[in-house]
Amino acid sequence: MSSQHTAQLQIQFLVVGGGVAGLACAYALAIAGHEVTIIEKGALDAKTEGSVRCPPNMTRLLKRWPGMAALFDERATPVSGLSFRDGQTGVPIGFMRFYEELMSDLRADFLALKHDDLRRHLDFLCASSGQVRFVHGHVVGLSKESVDDGVSVSLQDGRILSGDIIVGADGHQSVVRKLFFDEREPSDVVVTWQVHLVIPTQAVLDRGLANEHEFTIWAGDNSMMSGILDTASKNFYLGICTTGPVAALNCDWFKSYDNTFLPDFDLAGYDPRIHELIDCATDCHPTIQTIHENRDAVAPNSKVILIGDAANSVLLHGTHNTSMAIEDAMTLGSLFSRVRTREKIKKAIGVYDDLREPRVEQIRKSEYASLKEISLPQGVERQRRDDALQLTLQPEYATYEDCSDSDDLIEAWEPYIDAFKYDAVEAVDDWFSQLGSFFENVPPYINIVVA
User: Fold this and answer.
1) 2, pLDDT greater than 50
2) Domains of the chain: which residue ranges?
3) Domain 12-94+106-185+292-370+421-439 is in which class?
4) Nearest CA to 326 among 11, 9, 27?
C-alpha cells in the first residue's frame, strides 16, 4: 500500500525535456496531484548509453518511489569507494573507502546505474501515474504572459501547448534557457572539455587498470579520467575531462563519434595501457562544459523554472549533476503538493529558489574544486595532494574501527558527508516547520511510502 498527499489545486505543468531530469520532475509533480505534459524532441523510446553516478543524497530520495529500491538491487553497481591513481603509471595513490558504518548513517548507498535503466523506470512511473502525457516536438518559442494568465510553448510544427508553468529540463544546451533569457545572456564561461567513451569491460580487465566496484580516478596534468568497473556489464564508461582548451572540439552533443575525435586532447602523459584502452572505444560522446553567467533558475514573473543541467552548471558527468536534477524535481514536487490556491504559486516558486540556489552553489563549488585538485600539474601542490592521499592506503584505514577517530579521516570525509546527508524533501519540511505559516493546516508532503 502507499499513501500520497495530493494538492488541493491542480496546476498544469509543461516540462520541456524527456530525459532523467524531466521525467523525475514530471513524476514528482504528478504524484502531487498535478497534470504534466512532457515535450521531448528526441525519440521517446530510444536507448541511451552511459552510466549515472548515484550518490546517497540521490538514492535515498529515489527509494521513496515505487520499484526504485528493486531497480537498485537488481541493476545497480554498489561503489565501494574512490580509488585515486597516478595517470602516468596507473599506481594507486589513495582510496576513500565508503565504510559501511558511514553509509549506514547516511541511510543510502553510492551506486552506479545505467542511464537507460534509470530513464526507462522513470518513464514507466510517469506513464503509470495517469497524470503525465508525452508530446513529441521541438520547442521554438515561449509565451510572455504572467503566470496568472497561463503560459504556452510553440513547437516547430506550429502546434501551441498551454499550461500554467513551464519547466525547462532540457539539459546544459537548454533551448528554454536561451528563450528564457531572450538570447541576450552574456557569453558563458567554458571551464572543461569532456569526452565520454564506451569501452568493452574485458579490455579494462585485460589490462588491470581498475578494481571492480571502485570509482576509479586517474589524475593527470590539467586533466583527469574516471570510470566505475562492473564485470556484470559488458561496457565500461570512461570519462576524460580537461581544464585546458581544446580548440578543435566542435561537436553535437546528441551525436556519437569515433576515436578520431580524441587527438585534440593532450593525453601524452597517461599510462600506455590507458591509450590502449581508448583505442578499444566503440563510441565517443564529447561535451563542452560551461558555467552560465546568469545563474537565475526562475523567471521574474515565475512562469518559467529551469532544473537540472539547464540551470545548475554543476560538473557534467560528475558525482552530482544528476543528483541535483533529482533534488530539484523532489523539491518542486514537495512544494507544489502544498499549494492550495493560485495565489500561492508564486510564493511556492520563491521558496524553491531560496532552497535550491545555496545548495546548488555549494555542490558546484565543491565539484570544480575537486576537479582542480585532481588535475594539478607536476609541482609542489600536486606532491602535497599525493602525500595526503597516500595516508588513506595505510593499514589502519582498511576498517572504520581502526581509523574512526582519525583527524585526517574526519577532514577528508567532511565535504562528502555534507553533500551526501542532504535530503531535499526534508529540507522542504524543515522550511515549512520554521517559515511556512502561509501554508498552515496543510499536511506534510508524503512522497511515497511502499509497504
Assistant:
1) no
2) 12-94+106-185+292-370+421-439
3) alpha beta
4) 27
